[in-house]
Amino acid sequence: MQWIQQNLPYFLAGISVGGQYALIAIGYTMVYGILRLINFAHGDIFMCAGLMLVYLSASLPFYVSIPLVLLLTVLLGFTVERVAYKPLRKAPRMSVMISAIGVSYLLQNVALYVTGGLSKQYPAIPWLSDTVTVFGALTKRVTIITPFLTIILIVLLVLLINHTNVGMAMRAVSKDFETSLLMGIKIDNVISVTFIIGSFLAGVGSLLFFSNYTGVTPTVGAMPGLKAFVAAVFGGIGSVPGAVIGAFIIGICENIIKAMGWTTFSDAFTFALLILILIFRPTGLFGEKVTDKV
Amino acid sequence: MIEKKKGSKANLIFALGLVVLVFVLEQLLPSSSMLLTVIKKSAIYALAAVSMNLLNGFTGLFSLGQAGFMMIGAYAYAILNVPTDQRAAVYQYFDGGIIQFSITEGISSVLGNVAGLIIGVLLSLVVAGLVAAVFAYLIGLPVLRFRGDYLAVATLGFAEIIRAFFQWDKLGPITNGSNLLRKFTNLADFNIKNSTGQVIINLSTTILVLIVAACIMIIAMMINSTYGRSFKAIRDDETAAEAMGINLAKHKMTSFVVSAFFAGIAGALLAMYQTTVQAAPFKTAMTYEILLIVVIGGIGSLSGSCISAFIFVGASEWWLRFLDEEKYNILNTHILRSGFRKVVFSVIIMIIVLFFRKGIMGENELNIAGFGRWLKRLFTGKKKPAIETEAK
């Protein structure tokens, strides 16, 4: 019992962080699946969502500010795609990746300008930030809510991908870009929808993530972003369930490492995992095998 | 600064001319002058950008580990050059550390102060580069097998791992944990002083520019050799290059290790310039900045990287400074305040990335002889488009 009480918080935190990574990872994995682009700006969109709530909740009640934040985040993701990625549709992939890095740099600098470089206190969202006791371990309610909310959202997403026209179009585009274009699929719309879904989930993820961590800084998005990307690679890039499982595994392992007192290496672990998975199973857990055509 | 082909002495003379110009400027301007700061910093960034260009632009390996290698170089240099009697002060939390010698000091005691300083620093720079290269070799073994995007993320990850490692308490006796390393031999030690300690001749900027120019010239020579041609073949088509008998693994590794070597030297120079070293600033953001310099200059152009390093550093440190000052208050909006400079700057970068994808130089190199011909034509009245660059 003693042991459970000591270690349960870490485990719970692991599941919760895993859920948050999962929500971000979906944005990466869907965009990569369709555009073959690592959207380096995705972590910064997540950060911007956090900052928006900080500023909006100062003047608006939560039932207005939270939906507004989600809306603005979606708008931001949509705009980034239209402005920074769409003009480069025919350019080499490296150019698009550089553009993504440029957007990331821009968003971080805008955040730096707006906040003045200070860490902004994330507002305590009532009910979500309340403290609850689970098996004698104290934790915030958000920790308990996260995995369930994550799974509900992901089930909805999988239903959307498998049973709607938009979802079918997405699957087609990720399978073969050119052919789906020939089949009359409006690719730009499909890509926009992908970014909208990804940004929405990143927005939800930011609500859950920052409720646990309280401080928002301009560079706070980079690390969770990269980790979520690793999760996406781990699960097999392009696969939504894979990304979710990868995210939970990374979240839990990371917190176990923290519990063992190796906090310095909790970040390093994620990347070591990336290297290992790329060496031994380059397509990830559920990825499709790709053969190179000359 | 670039030697385009054998026999083209014009560029070499141009490079020497630049060094002399820097020397003259340094004597005329006060040492706190913004221009000198920009020259120093942009020289360092130029070397880092050129080393990244070798990898990203010439070999087609999209690696994002540059800041990590620079950090290794900076640390290697700093650790090996803290004077013995200062070690106790620098490593105050780690009982003076476990390394108890300084390369420059050791050589100075044998060869005298001047020769010791020059040879010691050059040797330390090479050692710093070599340490970075060894790390690159070890990292390259697993990572270079990955393609494109995965390579980018894996190298980015490695840079982060190394940074965490260097800040680790248990390594404190070597790396000083997350504390500053300081008091090592820096650029100011090159200034020639008289007996009362007054500086007579300023050399700190000149020596830095000289070292950078030499390093860039070595990279340029490598790119113009058979190695360089193999790199370009790999960049253009891996499969075809392999079919032509180019050993992919070997050449990729060579490019990766050489790039890390010079990134390490750039890091060591950065340490000399800053006079202190800490792991914290060597973040992903630094790699991104170097990458953006490469992009602005033109992916696959060494002289482009040098020019854009100067413009990038100049704009971010100096010319756009006024954007951060609140005294220019347009329409009472308080738009201009700390940080606005960086916003404007990144918008400009985005515009370049989106609409001027070739950057300043594209894949061409600055060619002084060609530029001279162009000037001649300009005066004799014959028409020819823009700055002439050597056709491929």
| Major β-sheet profile of chain B | 2 strands, antiparallel
Number of strands of chain B: 4
Number of separate structural domains of chain A: 1
What would the principal axes of the Cα set say about the shape of chain A?
globular
**What's the overall average pLDDT of chain B, rounded?**
84
Could you state the order of secondary-structure elements of chain A as H and E? HHHHEEEHHHHEHHH
Number of helices of chain A: 11
The CATH architecture term of the domain at 9-280 in chain B is Orthogonal Bundle
Q: What's the CATH topology label of the domain at 9-280 in chain B?
A: ABC transporter involved in vitamin B12 uptake, BtuC
Oligomer: heterodimer
Uncertain segments of chain A are: none
Strand tally of chain A is: 4
Portion in beta strands of chain A: under 5%
End-to-end span of chain B in angstroms? 19 Å
Give the overall silhouette of chain B. globular
- CA gyration radius of chain B, whole angstroms: 22 Å
Largest interface: A-B, 48 and 47 residues
> What is the topology, as strand order, of the major beta sheet of chain B?
1-4
Question: Structural class of chain A, please?
Answer: mainly alpha
Helix fraction of chain A, binned, reads over 70%
**Order of strands, widest sheet of chain A:** 1-4
Using brief descriptors, characterize the structure shown:
heterodimer; A: 294 residues; mainly alpha; ABC transporter involved in vitamin B12 uptake, BtuC; two-stranded antiparallel ribbon; B: 392 residues; two-stranded antiparallel sheet; 2% strand; globular
Brief overview, please?
The complex is a heterodimer of chains A (294) and B (392). Chain A is mainly alpha-helical. Chain A is built from 11 helices and 4 strands, in the order H-H-H-H-E-E-E-H-H-H-H-E-H-H-H.
